Amino acid sequence: MGEIASYVELYKSGELARRADTAWEILNACTLCPHDCLIDRRTSKRSFCYSGMTAKVASYVLHKWEEPPITGTRGAGTIFFSNCTLKCTYCQNFSLSQQSHGKEVSNERLAEMMLELQERGAHNIDLVTPTHYVPQILKALVIAAGRGLTIPMVYNTSGYENLHVIKLLDGVVDIYLPDAKYADDEAAWNTSRARQYVKNNRETLKEMYRQVGDLVLDEEGIAVRGLIIRHLVMPNDQAQTYEVLKWIAQEIGPTVSISVMDQYFPAYKALKDPLLSRKPTWEEYEVGLNAIEEFGFENGWTQDHITDDEMMEEEIMEKYAAKIDPNI
Hints:
By secondary structure, this protein is of the alpha/beta class. Helices cover 35% and strands 16% of the residues. Strands 1, 2, 3, 4, 5, 6, 7, 8, 9 and 10 form a 10-stranded mixed β-sheet that branches.
């Protein structure tokens, strides 16, 4: 199959440019995420995500800590975007997502970043927290594809998406890497300020799966297409791990790739929350492991459970959290 991304044909036909123009119009009254702010982002940054007309980037790097088929042997070409459509009280990257650290970049510069990452050997372009910048990303992709970008596009998201935006990405995104954070809207609101997270997450997960299907690997074991769903186990069952995995198995199917993560720790505001102020126990993480077996999931990844003695918070931050690049 090779690594030629699906958006290349869309670029050649002119469809990619048309999609970019359609997405750009959304900025006039923004509905890029389910908050549906209807803010004119051409003139204002008063939206929930505090973002305007220009994409803001914290760093772009060869990243070695995604799932193995994304990281591969050379690394994912990861672009960490600033700001977010959620307000997670436990976010490890809160300086980017909540405090807006980063630098505004033109669509031209964003395209240059993609091309530079390809030149450096990245297996893919890994867009982290991209939802609120879909129009800018599509405009940049038109430029980059015209200059020779061909590696797969990864859409690495919290899973809080609007269906009409995900449909715009059909044939543009090769690999979807969304979270399925919660099975309960009250928990989603209390910890992430997301209304109707469950409904929006589930309908867009189904659409992502319709577009790209199960994970496809090349001869070297590198992902070229497909869906990987992530789920972060949280203390006191705040993520409803069993229910999330049950729904995925029943509504999408046990062949979809699952990544059950255990690197939660009480970052940002979580230290003041009695339900979130500690790491998950082994027993809490084991719920996810048992659910994987019970529901017959065939593909995916789990992690050796991290204890306080094995890895301190600073070490987890060093491994998983994004760094701010002053040289963008």
